Amino acid sequence: MTVELPPEYQPSANEEFMNPRQVEYFRRRLEQSRADLRRELEANPSPETDDLSRAGDQTDHASAESERELEMQNRERIQVLLRQTDRALAKLENGTYGYCEDTGEPINLKRLMAQPTTSLSLEAQQAREGPTRA
Known about the structure:
The protein has helices at 20-43, 58-94, 109-114, 122-129. The N and C termini lie far apart (50 Å). The protein is built from four helices and no strands. The protein has one domain (20-129): DksA, coiled-coil domain (Four Helix Bundle (Hemerythrin (Met), subunit A), Up-down Bundle).
C-alpha cells in the first residue's frame, strides 16, 4: 500500500499517532538516511594498517596513526547509525516504531523528528542515564 504524502508534509500532534502518513514520512526519512550512510561508508574505505610501514620519521608515523584512528572511529560511528536505522525500519514494519521500548508509550513527535532512530521517550532515556548532577 503506497501512501501519498503532500509536498512539505510534516507529522503533527493534531493527527492520529503513527497513522499511515506518519509511518510513510518516517520510512522515507530512514531509508534516505540509510542510503546516505551507506554512501558515506563506501566513500571512506577502511583505513589500511600497513600504511604505518611507509618511510618517514616518528612524527609522520604518529600523525598517520592518529589519522587512521579517527577514520576507524568515524567508520564505527557510521556502522552504529546504520544498525540503529535498520532497527528503526524493522520497527516500522512490525508496527512498534514510535513507541518507547521501556514504557510502550508514544515517543514525542518532536523527538522523533529530531532523532528518527530513537527508541526511547525522553523520560525513559533520562531514567536510563540516571540522576543528573547539578
